[in-house]
Specification:
There is one protein chain. By secondary structure, the chain is α/β, with parallel strands linked by helices. The chain is about 45% helix and about 15% strand. The protein is built from 7 helices and 5 strands; from the N terminus they run αβααβαβααβαβ. The protein has a 5-stranded parallel β-sheet, sandwiched between helices. The N and C termini lie far apart (about 30 Å).
Length: about 130
């Protein structure tokens, strides 16, 4: 909780939470994912910056290439996204930190059929303006 409190100081009123689940481990759900949908919505938010979490570090790298310093991520995202087993203690802790951070902003861009997006909304006390792509 202290890490969430400290990190969330990087957010401001224009920060939008973005949770991207590319479903790279699920060939059926992967057909539902299109990163262009995220780009299109984020492109329309010209005055915003974005706290981004994803299921792979490659997605974060794409976002950083496209949006530069408008992207906020936890510094250890390469270790925490897609490389550490969900059943390992530190992997679960890192996921929970990301989940709580996603809930701290007024707006959420989430992924269709992702319970991670849904839980962010719940942890925001159901107050986030939410886009599901």
């Amino acid at each position: 909780l202290q890490e969430v409190k400290n990190f969330s100081k990087k957010f401001n009123n224009n920060t939008v939470s973005v949770q991207i689940r590319s479903w790279n481990d699920d060939p059926i759900k992967q057909k539902l994912f299109n990163i262009e949908d995220f780009y299109n919505l984020m492109n329309s938010m010209v005055d915003n910056n974005f706290f981004v979490t994803a299921d792979t570090p490659e997605i974060i790298e794409k976002m950083k290439e496209k949006y530069g310093d408008r992207i906020i991520t936890r510094e250890n995202y390469k270790e925490t996204m897609g490389h550490r087993g969900r059943g390992q203690k530190q992997g679960v802790i890192d996921a929970m930190i990301d989940l709580l951070l996603l809930s701290k902003n007024k707006t959420l861009i989430g992924t269709y059929v992702s319970t991670f997006s849904e839980m962010s909304w719940w942890f925001s006390n159901c107050k986030q303006k939410t886009y599901i792509l």
